[in-house]
């Protein structure tokens, strides 16, 4: 594990739910935390460095990593949480405009690749190990959802990148996780039931204890406690 002064978390695409909850959990454990998003003026989270990022623009991701490094230090933990979904017409998934599909795909996975590139280069350059990279997932890579025509392909590619990273790199250097909250039966979680706090708890466990597989599915009990599926 990196020395204490180097414990830095950078969340790309962090808003009031998962992003803020994960930030609070890591802050409470002594981490320095930066959140990257487009509307940084909407962020009112004490102790977190707001950084402008538009994940559809690779140069803003590179610049954001530079800012986080200079202000907080090199991240040893990175969370990719940005996502986009365009609903298709009923029973017509291919009715989504091609430009919307391309834009959503870039947000769902293109930006994640750029973040993977910079996070791994920086960690190597500064001998930070292990680097933990967590992608916020869902079940769309494993269960087809007709409404997720622009989300599912991006999450599937994101899962592929986490699998690829876990296969090729030594876990002592880089660890990759695709973390998805699921229902007790392994299904998709209705949006209102997605728990930011549970993501914070699980991401903290991943950063500290790790898991032996990149595909991490977890459940949240009515009392808020989390379990691995
Ligand atoms: N397990 C499940 O079944 C499930 C269900 C729902 C959601 N999810 C996943 O949870 C994640 C979202 O969590 P949440 O709803 O709680 O979100 P959140 O952390 O509250 O906010 C996500 C943030 O992403 C930022 N963002 C969007 N587009 C961006 C872009 N182009 N560049 C930079 N930042 C961008 C937005 O901020 P700005 O507008 O300021 O940029 C937004 O505040 C997604 O990955 C989603 O797929 C999983």
UniProtKB/TrEMBL annotation:
Molecular function GO terms recorded: oxidoreductase activity
Signal peptide range in chain numbering: none
Keywords: Oxidoreductase
Keyword Calcium applies: no
Classification via Gene3D superfamilies: NAD(P)-binding Rossmann-like Domain
InterPro entries the record matches: NAD(P)-bd_dom_sf (IPR036291), SDR_fam (IPR002347)
CDD domains: SDR_c
Family: Belongs to the short-chain dehydrogenases/reductases (SDR) family.
Protein name per the record: Epimerase/ hydratase
Origin species: Achaetomium macrosporum
């Amino acid at each position: 594990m990196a020395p204490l002064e180097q414990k830095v978390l950078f969340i790309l695409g962090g808003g009031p739910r998962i992003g803020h909850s994960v930030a609070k959990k890591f802050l409470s454990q002594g981490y320095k935390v930066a959140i990257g998003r487009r509307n940084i003026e909407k962020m009112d989270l004490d102790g977190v460095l707001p950084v402008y990022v538009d994940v559809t623009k690779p140069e803003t991701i590179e610049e954001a990593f530079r800012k986080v490094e200079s202000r907080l230090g090199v991240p040893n933990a990175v969370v990719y949480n940005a996502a986009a979904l365009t609903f298709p017409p009923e029973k017509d998934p291919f009715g989504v405009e091609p430009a919307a599909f391309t834009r959503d795909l870039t947000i769902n996975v293109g930006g994640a690749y750029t973040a993977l590139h910079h996070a791994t280069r920086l960690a190597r350059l500064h001998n930070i190990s292990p680097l933990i990279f967590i992608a916020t997932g869902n079940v769309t890579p494993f269960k087809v959802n007709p409404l997720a025509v622009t989300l599912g392909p991006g999450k599937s590619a994101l899962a592929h990148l986490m699998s690829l990273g876990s296969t090729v790199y030594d876990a002592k250097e880089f660890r990759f996780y695709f973390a998805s909250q699921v229902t007790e039966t392994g299904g998709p979680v209705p949006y209102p039931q997605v728990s930011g706090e549970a993501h914070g708890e699980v991401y903290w466990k991943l950063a500290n204890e790790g898991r032996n597989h990149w595909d991490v599915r977890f459940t949240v009990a009515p009392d808020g406690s989390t379990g691995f599926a």
